[in-house]
């Protein structure tokens, strides 16, 4: 397992905005999960109109081969296969009446669908 802590510079596997971290940590705490160990799993799966889609879920701990990124009090777990597609991405959270939720800004995506939930590399 590789672990990265970001303090604003360098090549980080995945960047987490403060708003995304705050929202995810709040949700983890709402599930009574220990934020010192548990985290948000970010992964890629087959599906969506563009071929690949993003997935997210909470996990109690990382797997042995995960990359673990710690930023703004949030731990993010990414498996090696998913890292091939989302390395260098930024996890963002946008609030509001429409389109509220987590979004992945992925520089590796050649194209994405209109809703932004699936992509192609």
TrEMBL record:
Any one Gene Ontology biological process term?
iron-sulfur cluster assembly
Membrane-spanning ranges: none
Q: Which InterPro entries match?
A: ATAP (IPR016092), ATAP_core_dom (IPR000361), FeS_cluster_insertion_CS (IPR017870), HesB-like_dom_sf (IPR035903)
Q: Which residue numbers delimit the Core domain?
A: 14-117
Report the superkingdom from the record: Archaea
Show the SUPFAM superfamilies listed in the entry. Answer: HesB-like domain
UniProt-recorded Gene Ontology molecular function terms: 2 iron, 2 sulfur cluster binding; 4 iron, 4 sulfur cluster binding; iron ion binding
- NCBIfam families from the UniProt entry: iron-sulfur cluster assembly accessory protein
Could you identify this protein by its name? Core domain-containing protein
- Species source reads Haloferax sulfurifontis ATCC BAA-897
């Amino acid at each position: 397992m590789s672990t990265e802590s970001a303090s604003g510079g360098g090549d980080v596997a995945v960047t987490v905005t403060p708003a995304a971290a705050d929202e995810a940590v709040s949700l983890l705490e709402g599930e009574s999960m220990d934020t010192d160990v548990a985290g948000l799993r970010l992964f890629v799966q087959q599906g969506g109109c563009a071929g690949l889609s993003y997935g997210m879920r909470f996990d109690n701990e990382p797997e042995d081969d995960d990359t673990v990124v710690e930023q703004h009090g949030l731990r993010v777990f990414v498996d090696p296969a998913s890292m091939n597609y989302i390395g260098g991405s930024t996890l963002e959270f946008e609030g509001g009446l429409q389109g509220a939720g987590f979004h992945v800004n992925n520089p590796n995506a050649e194209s994405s669908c209109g809703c932004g939930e699936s992509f192609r590399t």
